Amino acid sequence: MPGKLEKQHFQYAGWSKTSFSEVVSVKGPGRLLFLSGIGAEDTGDAPGVIHHPGDVYQQTRLAYEKAAAVLARHGATLADVVKISAYLLDVREAPNYHRARAEAFKDAPGLPAHTFLFINNLAWPGMLVEVDLTAVVAES
């Protein structure tokens, strides 16, 4: 019989409690999933086709929808995500990013650890946000 996967979320600073976990601890038999940077790029054969030009909120929603679909193919959900690294071009768009992320994780039992960076360029012109995710799934 496989052992149980235990995941704990820790938030020490008062201001972080509604935004992210400062530490996520995982113990037990599990499988790690590392998702490469996901943004609003189309999933078809043509590279660099970006959906929702100029709209950080919609690009972020699409990125997390795509992440959820990839995770599902591996028996996981967004609730299994333990770490996010997010990259955004414009600091003024942070509230739109955070609103879409909060919607994506509204049903998760705890928030992932989260690093938020503002950079000059992303993978494709027109891409405004990109997320890398790490998930842990219990072994069945």
UniProtKB/TrEMBL annotation:
Q: Which CDD domains does its entry note?
A: YjgF_YER057c_UK114_family (cd00448)
Q: What's the protein name?
A: Endoribonuclease L-PSP
Q: Which InterPro entries match?
A: RutC-like_sf (IPR035959), YjgF/YER057c/UK114 (IPR006175)
What is the top-level taxon of the source organism? Bacteria
**Which species does the entry assign this protein to?**
Nitrobacter hamburgensis (strain DSM 10229 / NCIMB 13809 / X14)
Q: Name the SUPFAM superfamilies on file.
A: YjgF-like
Known Pfam families for this protein? Answer: Ribonuc_L-PSP
